[in-house]
Amino acid sequence: MHSIIELKASAEVASQCPLKSFKFYKTKEVDTGFYGINKGHMNIRTPWWDGSAIYGSNSTKLKKLRTFKDGKLKIGEDGLLQHDNDGVPLSGDVRNGWIGLSTLQALFILEHNKICDALKKEDHTLSDEDLYRHARLVTSAVIAKIHTIDWTVELLKTDLLHVAMRANWYGLLGKKFKDKFGHVGGAILGGIIGLKKPNNHGVPYSLTEEFVSVYRMHSLLPDQLLIRDVNSIPGPNKSLNVTKKVDMINLIGKKGENEISKIGSRTLMVSMGHQACGALELWNYPAWLRYVVPQNVDGTDRPDQVDLPSLEIYRDRERNVARYNEFRRSLFLIPISKWQDLTDDKKAIDTLREVYGDDVEQLDLLVGMAAEKKIKGFAISETAFVIFIIMASRYNSNKQN
Fold it and tell me: DSSP code of 295?
């Protein structure tokens, strides 16, 4: 059994906290037997680029989601996720879900099923299992591709990074060469999708705890979702008309699943596509995530609310992720020696000094990355970027092979 931890707000700030205290499970340590490391933390959910958000992370879930006809997955007639008798959506990962995740899960299930149709049209001899496996591979690769050359270049919006990420995926020879001549020359010339086998440099592949830490990006979420009129015609440089605003607290968990059917998949897709995300900066963490109800693996609610930003900082400390300065040193980046090295914002400096005193070595990674001066065009910090560039290539090379 997991042991239960309780965090309590100190008296001087308790009145400013949505929750005076909250309980949660301590991360369970397991014996690893790995390279002399005796203890570690096991994750029962596989990394998302394997398509586990759609397909699940174990065979039981895989089977539950399949129709076992023409390789297809279960999906509602309205293009939204089906639900079980308890109102939990039928999809690969249903824990701590929200309306955006459910909508994208439904989209990629529809994509999977379309791929099955296309494959069957080309080859009628393919069995249900063949169709399922091929479509799953293609869909997972599409997710990885979107993440590499669409999503990442929006976080790192410079011409250099745009070229770099396409080279990372297609190779230095580029997409046109690959389309004409096929895979040539391994990873550098042919890109990640040209690798014949993974190159892990002698270390078994894993997504590291550091990658989890730099991907704590809940500040991207808005306070409200703006529902758009999909039938209106926007003027020059304008978005579709907003018909209503829905608080995000009402779009998570089971409550969010109920809201989906009222709004509809097309309206949701269009609305989310027209709304900008938040900035990864100090004082921009969504307030509604400070009293959110967490869920179990099966999608059922837990009894206690949690203050998610506090929990995220606790998790980094609990799992021995280095604090900001030591984290940068380990990446051969220059650490800060005073708060002014981190930011020019006087309010931020005063607040950091109030929390940490003058000891910059105590600065938590999550806080430091939010306060850090951004490189022009970057939505994420330089600190996070270094982990991104290492792990993205490493994950893609394993994913494609």
Answer: B
